[in-house]
Amino acid sequence: MNTVKIIIGSTRPQRFGPQIASWVKGIADEAATANGNTRFELVDLAEVNLPLFDEAIPPMMNQPANEHTKKWAGIVAEADGYIFVTPEYNHSTSAALKNAIDYLIYEWAHKPVAFASYGSQAGGTRAVEHLRAIAGELKLYDLRDQVMISNYWAQLDEKGQFVPTPEQGDAVKAMVEAIMFWTEAMKAPRQKLASQQ
After folding, report:
1. pTM of model > 0.90
2. Cβ partners under 8 Å of residue 185, min gap 6
3. Dihedrals phi, psi of 188, to nearest 5 degrees
4. Is the pLDDT of residue 130 over 90?
5. Please, are residues 117 and 87 in contact by the beta-carbon 8 Å criterion?
6. 88-101 in b/e burial notation, b at 16+ Cβ within 10 A?
7. In order of start, what are the domains of the chain with their CATH numbers?
8. What is the rounded distance in angstroms from the CA atom of residue 111 to the CA atom of residue 179?
9. pLDDT at 81 > cutoff 90
10. Which of 94, 82, 11, 85 is nearest to 47 (CA)?
């Protein structure tokens, strides 16, 4: 069984990220039921609650000292793939997500990652472009299929709940199918590559 972690990349009060993550997970769970070989799990960085990166020894040395780092490393390491749910802040991703990524190196390596982004007109695309560059450095394999939600506040109902369009739902389905395929396809090569590190 493969595990894909859906990581909520915003931690601020009244954030929109959990709505997107729950919506993506609902579609992913339906696809996983049909696929039978993948499970999807939500990871909320607000609950993980990492401090600003505080390890004295760089992650490259693989000698974490703090318990919160070791716990986070375990969460990341047990996944076979990831979906990052990111807002766009000032043409980039959130500080919370970048901080969480920077804590680790080896736990991310040789795994596929996909992106669901939201923001104003650009729909978070500039945040994703920055994350793609970061993914390359960490040996994460970023997938082309992604979800972009522009001006998300225009799609909230009277209760503040997100109402997706059919096209947005189709984009999630395509992204989920891609992450399930590549998570399975890369499992054996990843094990071989990991043994060479």
Report:
1. yes
2. none
3. -65, -45
4. yes
5. yes
6. bbeebbbebbbbbb
7. 2-194 (3.40.50.360)
8. 10
9. yes
10. 11
